User: Fold this.
Amino acid sequence: MQQPRKTASESTHSTPAFDTDDSNHTACTAESTTDLLTVEGLRVQFPSPDEPVRAVDGVSFGIADGEIVGLVGESGCGKSVTARSIIGLDPPEAAVRGSIELDGTDVTAASERQLRRLRGDTVSMVFQNSMETLNPVLDIGEQIAESTKVHDHPDSQRLLDYLHAPLFSSRADWHERREHAAELLDQVGIASPEERVDDYPHELSGGQIQRVAIALALASDPDLLIADEPTTAVDATTQAQLLDRFRHLNDTRGMALLLITHDLSVVAELCDRVVVMYAGQVVETGPAGRVLRDPSHPYTRALLNCLPQRVDRNERLPTIEGAVPDPTDDRSGCPFAPRCERATDDCRHGDVPTIDLGDGRGTATCYDVDDSRPAAPYNRPGITVTAGEDESDPTREPTTAAETPAAETPSSESTARSSTREKTRPESTADGDRQPLVELEGVTKRYATANGLIDRLFGATATRRAVADVDLEIRAGETLGLVGETGCGKTTLAELVTGLETPTAGEIRFGGDPVGGVESRSAETLADVGVVFQNPRSSLNPRLTVEQLVAEPLRSRGWSTGRRRERVRTVLDRVGLSEHRARSYPHELSGGQVQRVAIARAIAPDPTLIVLDEPVSALDVSVQARILNLLSELQAEFGLTYLLISHDLAVVEHVVDRVAVMSRGELVEIGPVDRVFDQPTHPYTKTLLASIPSLSPEETTGVRPSASDGVSSSLDRPTR
Amino acid sequence: MDDATYLLHRLGTSIIVLLGVSVVTYGLLFLTPGDPAEVILTQQLDRQPSASEVESFRATHGMDDPVPVQYVSWVTDVLRGDLGTSYYSDTAVSTLIVDALPLTIELAVASLLVALAIAIPTGVLSAVHRGSAIDYASQLGALVGVSMPNFWLGYLLILVFALTLGSLPVAGAGSYGQLVLPAITLGTGMAAVLTRLIRSSMLEVLDEAYVDTARSKGLRERIVLYKHALRNALVPVVTILGVQLGSLLNGAVVVEIVFQRPGLGMLLVDAVFERNYPVVQGITLVTAGIFVGTNVLVDLSYRYLDPRVELGGETV
Assistant:
């Protein structure tokens, strides 16, 4: 463990300045040269058959020592590409221009040797999808030991030593490093680290993997940690612990953090400053509190408006019409202009100035920044995307949507149709009157963990209880939310309802009749339940077209070709996919479109119950809002009943009528969502709810217990 | 499944495989036309044997019993460790095999080493420089290597290195010099197959996120490639290696003839021509045993290469 950095320079607070002479978007250059990281005019292009793909298109920002900066924006906006450029890991075919000054070295021009030193000493990165970022054939201790070894001896790396070849490798040294690895694991909150050191990645849970990935990054004691969506794949309680860990590391080690996320509540919880990216460009920067409370750029505003936590339960979520522009377009002007209602001709041509908002409030690359705006930041008239507006003016066509092949097709029709729709959600008190559609009585599911012949011969019957004695009813027409940590049995319970698993004990009834697993269910019962699986991209056969995918459940139920075609067309239209999409393959579609296909497939046989397993967890907030809107439209139109599994409690709170909380296979609490969220009775529910990061900027700005203690006062953290 | 159970299980299936192999070869030999006793005696005596000579030969070698009975008595002998006696020299078959086997194993191991020494760097380089001149050259080389028959390459090498340059011995066995040309001959084909396999396997692995993680630590590219990527890429390669062993033993037969190495292959070919059935039987059985045994080793090595592998999977 190193002592915290002692480079206490004076103010490194980078006040970005508006430079009128600078014609491109490199305007928000940090003045200070003592910044740990200064990115200036970064452009990353990938060759493609036609125009080069401009993944990053003139990005400039800085990070001071010990600062926590959030890089936000929807997927495809260039966040990850920017991050990879900072650590010098651009794919070989990428053309990188601009400069990235990291601790005094320009990464874009650095030699292999310099890069190795930077990576081993100055910067570390936690990649997205940490499940895949650990080497499956090396144990955890080895992977961490390597990092510390590189950190200590970046220039003398001998292959035979790293391969542990006898004579070329010091066993004692590696052994010592493994012990140090256990310490690092302990620091990131892994229980019994001495044993975990010998584990392989597949033996750990998702949350543990994420912690290991962080420990791996910390092994080289970096000055800057880049974390790409570090909490996206973990449940709320793990997320809270990880965020807490980041803050602690920042406080004690003075480690700067670049946090890439699409989750604005994480930004609110942790970040000092935010950089908002859109279509490869920085559109807004500023202190986290200011940006979240009082966003200046229309895109930031729109993004914040899409969050379910900001909208009343019975309201439609606002969405951003159109799609991120095709990065191959030779564009000029503001990239957001096509989706922005306030866009003028000025916005569509030439370069849009980056305007300093003054008083250290950051910058916004927009003409429309005017400080005399009314104080109430949300639902301001004139923003493209507020719910009230959509309803007051249902005839308004969405602004020109980008006509890109991979883009989300705007479901303008459905938006217009549904905008006047009254959500027929009954009062919670009336719920008891509804007929139960599905009833579970004492349902238990055990999995055998010992399955060898010998084990069975000797009667070793080790089992794991995935679902324990659950009584539950799903009422016709309601949305029942199912929440709980990873591994609590949510998905198993859903599989029991759909018949993919059969209960070890207990009974499941549909409309009063007991049903078994899929093979014993009647065709009618099967057609009654639709499923939208977690991660639609991997649950849809990549070799089938959209049309075939949606028609598949119909064919297996004996529909005729003509009837099938008719139904597929209706359903695709209903979920907002245009007809020419029918012949596309899943890989040609965007995340939101794939999810629409999965939904179309689920509703095609006209079911009464749809099981939704994390239907929006992989989607950006604006797409998430559209899908959630679509789901509630479909529910009202077809009288569907939903069983929604989600770890995103904000989503759950927004869409469900009743919520069931599971912990360790047991149902610990169930009730109307308002009651459960406002007055949780079970201690587990309370813990779960407490772990939701708050989006309210007021609660986070200035309250962080950081700059007060002795350690961090020696650091040049910007104070604001 | 623990190791002991797994090995017991594999032992059981191996015995069934070996029994099957012996039944098939036994059956095939006796289905070949002509009375083996007559053929053998004709060759031994260099004249047409008399009826009494044939009869006494058949009696000594138990050929008068029905084939199933002969087979059962052969199997019983084998289980007692007795592979029988050669029809010609009255030497025990086991002695013949023990004399010849080391030469073949030496050749197989040497050619495997040659193959790996060529295939690993070429395959890795080819994958790293995908689409470059290096890649095309190595792929072309692999194509040539796969297409070239062993015996032709063998004679070509003899022609160039032994006869023209005189730098290496033409034939025979015993010294390392005499091993070089056969090992190259036999190893080339395998190297070609492995190069292509390692290339495609590496290409897949290099796209994996953990390779970037390794780079982001600041590791040298060589360590990233040969420690992090190659070990993952070798898992499918080892599977093929086990299967390729069969073709290696096949190839050894040809190569031993070409280079006049008195190994198992040469012994087998001679025995087949002489209808020396006990020798053919013995060699087939031993070879099958080696093949089965190596594949058990290959399966065991998976767990070393990939800790996610559980021996025996879920089916027992």
Notes: Residues 3-93 of chain B form one domain. Residues 8 and 32 of chain B are 37 Å apart (CA to CA). The mean pLDDT of chain B is 86. The first helix of chain B runs from residue 3 to 31.
